[in-house]
Amino acid sequence: MAALNPACKNVEISVHEDNLVPHGQPQDPKAQHFHSSNRGQWLRAAILGANNGLVSVASLMMGVGALKRDVMAMALAGFAGLVAGSCSVAIGEFVSIYTQLDIEATQMRRNSREDSKNLELPNPFQVAITSALTFVVGAMVPVVAAAITRDHKVRLGVVVAVSSLAFLVFGGVGAILGRTPVGWSCARVLVGGWMAMAITSGLTMLIGSSH
């Protein structure tokens, strides 16, 4: 019957050719999944580190600036937050990713060698270094803005303005890299940053005025 109907035979061949795997390039869904996961680890760490550095240090400096008019006080507070925060995110990411690494390595040992030989594991050192460096980049934005502005009120406004612009930039970059809506991502990061700065400044002023 197949010989009497060459059209059906051609259709059958074209359908199977779409699913053929080139010789020497086996398609392993698990390997592709792990490869994407491994690549996404440092990307997630970079975006998270930059946003954390910007939000936490800007909020810290606004809290100090609510009570201290001295530019050195704000700059030192920002620098201390930069160092402490970068160490914190690096250690936190390292511990977290190393735990994930142990879990995935244990799972690989349970699988057969053929299923596991092409799998890629996350790199705790890469993620830790990435998060620490991007935290420093984000934190430097409000620190530099405060350090170069002498007037107290102008300094607070400059920190808020520069940090707001950085919120939008980081939100947009994260959305583009993650292939998510840019507008919603920018708005989410911007509003979250404003809330963090407002809460920190408000509570600091409240506690300072009570004493």
TrEMBL record:
Keyword Transport: yes
Any single GO CC term annotated in Swiss-Prot or TrEMBL for this entry: vacuolar membrane
Compartment list: Vacuole membrane
Keyword field: Ion transport, Iron, Iron transport, Membrane, Transmembrane, Transmembrane helix, Transport, Vacuole
Topology in membrane: Multi-pass membrane protein
Any Pfam family: VIT1
Spans through the membrane: 42-64, 71-91, 125-149, 156-177, 189-208
Primary site of residence: membrane
GO biological processes: intracellular manganese ion homeostasis
Catalytic activity: Fe(2+)(in) = Fe(2+)(out)
Gene Ontology molecular function terms on file: iron ion sequestering activity; iron ion transmembrane transporter activity; manganese ion transmembrane transporter activity
Domain of life of the organism encoding this protein: Eukaryota
Keyword Repeat: no
Family assignment from sequence similarity: Belongs to the CCC1 family.
Task of the protein: Vacuolar Fe(2+) uptake transporter.
UniProt protein name: Vacuolar iron transporter
